[in-house]
Write a structure and sequence with these properties.
There is one protein chain. This protein has five helices and no strands. The chain is mostly helical. Helix 2 crosses helix 3 and helix 2 crosses helix 4.
């Protein structure tokens, strides 16, 4: 959908004033992101997903320029954290597996650091 179509569909010409209108907008943009990604015709490609995010951000900015008071940048940050990352994990399982592995390695390094620090403190006593 084009920005004008999104605005008309959601009836947000006067801005995103209510929580309901914000939620509807966020869900619509999530659907747009999934649709744009699927149009690439590839599965499990984080590179294509990132390209889809750029296209959706352009639509987001288009909507923001056309409605009263625009859209707060904080809402994009919320959308990215809540919707984009979770959708990327669903559509790009290889990326998700890499992220999980990196998290596991980080937790292991943290545990070793804490253990080393605990032993150092015990040695000082």
């Amino acid at each position: 959908m084009k920005p004008k179509e999104i605005i008309k569909k959601l009836g947000i010409q006067n801005g995103l004033k209510s929580k309901k209108s914000q939620d509807e907008f966020l869900n619509t943009m999530r659907e747009e992101l999934a649709e744009v990604y699927n149009q690439f015709g590839v599965k499990d490609s984080d590179r294509h997903f990132d390209q889809a995010v750029k296209q959706v951000r352009s639509k987001w900015d288009g909507v923001s320029l056309k409605i009263a008071m625009g859209i707060n940048d904080g809402l994009w940050n919320f959308f990215y954290a809540k919707h984009v990352i979770s959708l990327k994990g669903e559509l790009c399982p290889t990326w998700k597996a890499k992220q999980d592995e990196e998290q596991r390695k980080y937790e292991e390094r943290k545990r070793k650091r804490e253990e080393k620090e605990r032993k150092r403190q015990e040695a000082e006593l």
